[in-house]
Design brief:
The protein has 177 residues and is α+β, with helices and mostly antiparallel strands. It has helices at residues 7-53, 57-66, 76-94, 127-136, and strands at 102-108, 115-125, 145-153, 166-176.
């Protein structure tokens, strides 16, 4: 069949085949070029974000001072002592003289695999000391939350609020294994 074709026909077939190949290359090449362009812009955006995240040591230290420090829960007996000791230290730092801390029995927490230990604190102190304690309570690496907080003024002094003498009932919690 090729023997029956003239030189002009063969040249037209060759040009047609070359044109078909060029069209296929341009189609796939344009798609690949579009993908490459998108990937390049995304990459440059990611590098810009990484450069924005990279902060100097002073700023990083400032940011780290804001983030609360936490410790992973330990077994119940060890966690109970660690949490109670750290809470006692915080109470002393705030100037609060408290009755002995009571550790209440662990109960199942909504978080799977953990027990919730409660520590109850009863004290008589000034209102400003309570505020100091609450402001620094998040520094306790074992603290999960404040379960109960009651501040009572002396009911005998009607009409007067004596902030120099308040009764504090505080229940805080921690996780244990």
């Amino acid at each position: 069949m090729i023997d029956k074709l003239s030189k002009k026909d063969i040249r037209a077939i060759k040009i047609g085949a070359i044109a078909a190949v060029i069209i296929a290359v341009l189609m796939f090449g344009s798609k690949l070029h579009g993908r490459w362009k998108k990937a390049k812009t995304k990459g440059s955006e990611l590098y810009a974000k990484l450069d924005a995240i990279d902060v100097d040591q002073i700023k990083q230290a400032g940011l780290m001072s804001i983030v609360p420090v936490i410790e992973m829960p330990k077994i119940e007996e060890e966690q109970k002592f660690l949490f109670r000791d750290k809470l006692s230290e915080q109470l002393k730092r705030a100037g609060i003289r408290n009755k002995p801390l009571q550790v209440q029995a662990g109960r199942k927490s909504p978080q799977a695999g953990y027990k919730l230990l409660l520590v109850k604190c009863n004290a008589t102190c000034r209102f400003s000391q309570v505020l100091d304690l609450l402001a620094r309570l998040n520094e306790n690496p074992y603290l999960v939350g404040i379960e109960e907080l009651k501040i009572k003024c002396d009911p005998k002094k009607k009409g007067q609020v004596d902030l120099d003498q308040v009764d504090l009932d505080l229940v805080v919690s921690t996780f244990a294994i």
